[in-house]
Description:
The complex is a heterodimer of chains A (208) and B (236).
Chain A: H1 2-30, H2 43-60, E1 65-70, E2 75-80, E3 83-93, E4 97-99, E5 106-108, E6 114-117, E7 120-123, E8 126-128, H3 131-136, E9 149-151, E10 157-160, E11 166-168, E12 179-181, E13 185-187, H4 189-198, E14 204-207
Parallel strand pairs in A: 1-14, 3-12, 11-13
Antiparallel strand pairs in A: 1-2, 2-3, 3-13, 4-5, 6-14, 7-10, 8-9, 10-11
Chain B: H1 10-55, E1 61-65, E2 76-81, E3 84-90, E4 93-98, E5 107-114, H2 131-136, E6 149-154, E7 158-165, H3 169-195, E8 201-208, H4 209-218, E9 224-228
Parallel strand pairs in B: 1-9, 7-8
Antiparallel strand pairs in B: 1-2, 2-3, 4-8, 5-6, 5-9, 6-7
Amino acid sequence: MIKRITFISFIGIIIIPLTVELFAYYVSSDRPVVSSSVGTSNLNELIRKNRTLKKGITGLSPKGFYIVIDTARNLIFLKEGNRTILKALVSSGSGNILRDPTGKREWIFDTPRGEFEVKEKIAAPKWIKPDWAFIEEEEDIPKNWEDRVEEGVLGDYALAFGNGYFIHGTLYKRLLGRNVTHGCIRVGDEDLETIYRFSRVGTRIYIF
Amino acid sequence: MKKANFQFNFPLFLFLILFSIGGSSQAIAGGDSIGQKIRALKDENCLLEAELGLASKGTSYIILDLRIESDSVPVRINLKNRGIVLREFDAERIRYRRTKGLIIEPIPLIKKMAFFPLKRKEIRPHKPEDGADAIGKLDFLELKDIPSNYTLSFGKGLLISITGQPKGLISRFIHLISSILIHICYSLTIVWNYLWRNELAIIEIIMRKEDAQALYWSLEEGMSIVIMEGHPYDTI
């Protein structure tokens, strides 16, 4: 009886998976690779096309300085071509959710991903507090615009990149390197100054 | 009429035979290398064409080149936008199996699947506190909250399984057992889809845990991947 159980276990654990594995190996390695749809087979023509395509891709890459933001590692890079001019720690979106007590609105504090450009360069920026900032602190949403203005919290400079998102300074320097913001990118003072100096309106920003 | 005198010259005969064999084999080898070059260029042009289309949109995309260039250079998952490499993720090991070859064209990411998916934290409104205390109580998503073992389901029957290599001894052992089980499951899936004539390609990638988490964080549904095939079932 024990011998039979051992035999069945042996088949179950070793033989069946091995058979499946071998079959999977066979069906995987025998299929022909589906090649490209390019019909031409003239070598010179292919080389020419290769060069044109490479040139086309290179032509799409940003000219001059550009900014790359890695939200997983919370790093900002100021680059020109393949050269990195500055690498610094930042704070990016927390990914948290805030719900309006009325249940009508919801905010997800993610940093947007993709390609953006500097829309505006602002020195001594003032924060115009949005509704969520009041809801988060259990305060009533003011009716006057002036009551929303807060000075000094965004540092010395800010670069707007659309939809109310900014690259700006911070009072919470010990949180640099962590995902704590409401979607904006917080940068340390010195690094922010360098980025501000090298950027122009139209400078490309890549966030991932 | 003078009779032609043909004398059999064995050394000359041997030389001619060897020369003709050498010449023909050289010609065949030359033809093969040009054929291979044409094939490689066709594939590369396809990859570039696909990339050009994606790069012109201004959205991020992934290029996965499974051809082995050299032993010292690992296979890399390149996250790109407008042709520039935003980040390179090194793969420690790759295993690639399929029931039919992949066409070199953009394939969109449909879903990120994980046993323990990412859960967003909800903010409970509260009165502001003093700076230091408030910072201490902050609750936010971090890389450690991100899954390191997950499957990316792309269109056209492409599945990419990402496994983050754990560090501790016990974790490594558990990881080994689960990897074997997952591998057998994928083998069964391959066989099943082969029998039902469905198109399926499974790429199993093992990478550093932090890289696997960062990749999960960086990928968004709808993002496209272009894969340049290597030989199937390669363990790199």
